[in-house]
Fold this protein.
Amino acid sequence: MIFLLRRLAFYLAAFFLAVTLNFFIPRLMPGDPSARIIASYQGRLNEAQVDAIRKAYGVTGSLWEQYLSYFASVLRLDFGISTVQFPEPTASLLFYGATWTLVLVGLAIFFAFIIGSLMGVHAAWHRGGFFDSFFTPINVMLNAFTPAIVALLLFYAFSLQLKWFPLGRAHDPSLMPSWDLRFIGSVLYHATLPVLSIFLVSFGGWHLGMRNVMINLLNEDFVILARAKGLSDRRVRYRYVARNAILPQITSLALSVGFLLGGALVTEQVFNYPGLGKFTFTAIQARDYSFIQGQLLLLTMSVLVANLLSDIANVILDPRLRKG
């Protein structure tokens, strides 16, 4: 419990620092988010309308007043108004994009972590065998690819040439979003290639990480003692070795959330998928500071929450942490 409280205090401090940096960094650049909107009206706005727009973007008052106002709006999950899709609130755009990105990243992380870890267990237990000798080098090679390269190859081969999968979108445009099996099937069909492109470059890392930790643990005294007691191979493999080897995997899983979301940015752009990555790319081109700030803060919060969940899982799996 003390361990979790210490970690929670650290994450709160990290969140406070992230919000502070997210406020000050855009203000170090020339101009402000409202300037683009005001300039687009080419002098047709009166002074009251200009003040209203500047107030909507939180650039009125002293810097300290702006900071307090920004911090309060973040706690209310109010990230301001998008300049690209004015006057659409940034929070609604973030929610829409995050929903589709979570579909991609969630499916890719789930399958990559489960399949990669199980392959690592099998490869370590049969070290030097056919499975280890065949799949470990392949996964080392796949792990060296970037999501952009794999996404482009899959898009060219299966969407452009073979036409087995659609060129873009998250679902069939003729279907309305619902929990209908037909709509869910359309979502999974459109997500197949984007998920596969993230999966292929990430599951090898889980395989290699699990394999290496397992090999180190196989010579530990508690494993030798378990074998000497005559316990079954299956019990020693999963209850004694894999259970301990999964702890660093869970920590790596939390740290990889940021990397996978970054990879999703490129993948969504290649497959024209309406997730956070596609919105972020457009926002960067148009200098939509409100959206960029909201997206960075959402990314930071995702990593912090993932790390907190990782700590809770570690406490559950490792009894030693419950004492500290």
Notes: The two ends are 8 Å apart (CA to CA). The CA atoms of residues 213 and 248 lie 8 Å apart. The chain has a mean pLDDT of 82. DSSP finds 13 helices and no strands in the chain.
